[in-house]
Write a structure and sequence with these properties.
Layout: H1 3-44, E1 64-67, E2 73-76, E3 85-90, H2 95-110, E4 115-119, H3 123-129, E5 139-142, H4 146-150, E6 158-162, E7 168-173, H5 178-187
Parallel strand pairs: 3-4, 4-5
Antiparallel strand pairs: 1-2, 1-5, 3-6, 6-7
Helix pairs in contact: 1-2
């Protein structure tokens, strides 16, 4: 092979090799993103077994005290509600909670004042994890951890509807799906009008 032929091969082989390597890197990055999506989806799809304690429809929703975002103490009076209340249980290190946030925000937009987040975290932790998220409902921090045992919150996210009579209407574990969202709308006892 002549030197001119070698130079000619090197001139087109190097860009082709670079394109192949860029394609492989792009493919690996794409697979990484897809794998992360699947992992979040699987961890968000929680199936509650009989071994996981949970409150059930018809149980009494216990009143509790919590701190508002501004630090003021607030009493959640579940025994004297004027309308059903949605409790969105979350924790700062819970990726499925961030997935659940979209549906919680949609419910908060359509049922103003009737969606309250209850966090298993301190405000500092919430601020860091949700700083770039648009949370459109108040997130309360219970004064005592006994609230989580009263409501049997061992996994997050959880969503529950507390009816006007102070009983729990329904409980969902993991991010809400369409079926759960439709059931919540039925329990809210008023029409759901999508607002943007």
């Amino acid at each position: 092979m002549r030197d001119s032929d070698t130079g000619e091969v090197a001139r087109w082989a190097l860009p082709v090799l670079c394109l192949i390597m860029a394609g492989v890197l792009f493919y690996l990055a794409y697979q990484n993103v897809q794998l992360k999506k699947q992992l979040v989806e699987v961890t968000g799809r929680l199936h509650v077994s009989k071994d996981v304690p949970t409150v059930r429809s018809g149980d009494i929703a216990a009143p509790f005290a919590a701190f508002l975002p501004d630090g003021q103490e607030f009493e959640v009076r579940t025994d004297s509600l004027s309308a059903p209340l949605i409790l969105a249980w979350l924790s700062y290190d819970c990726e499925p909670c961030l997935i659940a946030l979209d549906r919680w925000n949609l419910l908060a937009d359509n049922y103003p004042g009737q969606v309250w987040g209850i966090a298993k975290s301190s405000w500092d932790e919430i601020d860091t994890s949700l700083s770039d998220q648009d949370v459109r409902f108040p997130i309360l921090i219970p004064i005592s951890d006994t609230v989580f045992s009263q409501y049997q919150i061992s996994i997050t996210p959880q969503t529950m509807v507390v009816l006007e009579d102070g009983t729990i209407g329904s409980v969902w574990h993991g991010p809400l799906n369409e079926e759960a969202s439709n059931r919540i709308m039925e329990l809210m006892q008023q029409p759901f009008v999508e607002r943007r």
